[in-house]
Amino acid sequence: MSIKKDALKPCRWVGSAQKDLQGFPERVKKDIGTALMFAQAGQKPGSAKPFKGVGSGVWEIVDDHDGDTYRCVYLLRLKEVVYVLHAFQKKSKTGKKTPPKDIEMIKSRIKLAEDDYKKRPAT
């Protein structure tokens, strides 16, 4: 399926999310980048699922690589803009639960994204 790049929603990065993603392995960066482009095109990336516990419109991309799990959390509930909230490597080897410090960071970045959107709505 082809995506028209001129029809993509803008992607805005919150906090250190972009820098954190740049530290991921190349294949993971490519996979997450492709998934985010699908989200910008208004499509659901195959690797995306709702991120629970922080409100509606928050999605998570999960990518496994060489025994490690990488996550990228983004916000879709603000019209016409995709906000990337957090990118991190899951450290725990047992369980799927997101650590509380990461959940708190995501919640605070949702607030930052909402404030940014009020100041700079999509054009």
Oligomer: single chain
- How many individual domains? 1
CATH level 1 name: Alpha Beta
Task: Please state the second-level CATH architecture.
Answer: 2-Layer Sandwich
How is the largest sheet built, in terms of strand order?
Answer: 1-5-4-3-2
Gross morphology: globular
Unreliable segments of 5+ consecutive residues: none
**What's the pLDDT, averaged over the residues?**
91
Could you please say which CATH topology applies here? YaeB-like fold
Largest sheet, if any?
5 strands, mixed
Strand content: 25-35%
- Percent helix, as a range, is 25-40%
Number of strands: 5
Written account of the structure:
InterPro entries: HigB-like. This is Type II toxin-antitoxin system RelE/ParE family toxin. It holds the Pfam family Gp49. This protein has a single domain, classed as RelE-like (YaeB-like fold, 2-Layer Sandwich). A five-stranded mixed β-sheet has the order 1-5-4-3-2, sandwiched between helices. The chain contains three helices and five strands, in the order E-H-H-E-E-E-E-H. The longest helix is centred in the C-terminal third of the chain and has 20 residues, at 100-119. The mean pLDDT is 91. The radius of gyration is 14 Å and the shape is globular. The chain is of the alpha+beta class. A hairpin with a 6-residue loop joins strand 4 (68-75) and strand 5 (82-90).
